[in-house]
Amino acid sequence: MGQYDDRDYKVGKGKPPIEHRFKKGRSGNPKGPRHKKKAKDATLEVLAFEAVNEMVTVVIAGRERRITKKQAILLGVVNDALTGTPAQRLKAVKELREIGAFAPTVEDQRLTPEMRDERARQFIDRLIEAGKRTESMQELFKDYE
Predict the structure, then answer these.
(1) Which region holds residue 14: left if phi is over 0, alpha if psi is between -120 and 50, else beta?
(2) Distance between CA 30 and CA 47 in Å, rounded?
(3) Residue 131 maps to a domain
(4) Is residue 87 part of a domain?
(5) Quick check: 58 and 72 in contact, CB under 8 A?
(6) Does the residue 14 lie in any domain?
């Protein structure tokens, strides 16, 4: 026990009131810093995920950019394919195609002339409706001018 436990008084130096003493089995600072998971507790999958998602700074076209390690790896593979032999280029293209790197994106979907015309008509209709609403509101507030 402590050095003050043998004193004859119940409250005083080294003996706070019972209701303010630390409860057994509870930390003195329950809102203290949270403990991080130790690396030994993490699975290989978690460690790999954390490793490839770390940010690194790379120079691309003379500008510094912060990207994830997995993006940097992919950039390296593509750049190596450009400087490699034709067989290496074909292998890189095959692998990239397998993971869907060449799948068309939303930006690649080109509008047909009919689709452009329809969108233009819809835009003009919205402008006309907005103009009509503005005119009707102006007529309503004309009396207040």
Answers:
(1) left
(2) 29
(3) no
(4) yes
(5) yes
(6) no
Phi/psi for 85 (5° steps) reads -75, 165
Return the residue matching tokens 């799948």: 103
**In a 10 Å sphere around its CB, with 0-12 CB exposed, 13-18 middle and 19+ buried, how is residue 93 labelled?**
middle
31 Cβ contact partners less than 8 Å away, ≥ 6 residues apart: none
Task: Work out the number of other CB atoms within 10 angstroms of the CB of residue 84.
Answer: 14
| Predicted structure pTM score | 0.42
Measured torsion, CA atoms of residues 78, 84, 88, 93, in degrees rounded to the nearest 10: 30
In a domain? residue 91: yes
Q: What is the pLDDT of residues 81-124, one digit of tens each?
A: 888 888 788 888 788 778 777 776 665 567 777 877 887 888 78
Judging by DSSP bridges, how do beta strands 63-68 and 55-60 pair with one another? antiparallel
What's the number of domains the chain is made of?
Answer: 1
> Can you give the residue range of the structural domain that contains 63?
40-103
Instruction: Tell me the pLDDT tens digit for each residue of 40-87.
Output: 667 888 888 888 899 999 998 899 999 999 888 888 888 888 888 887
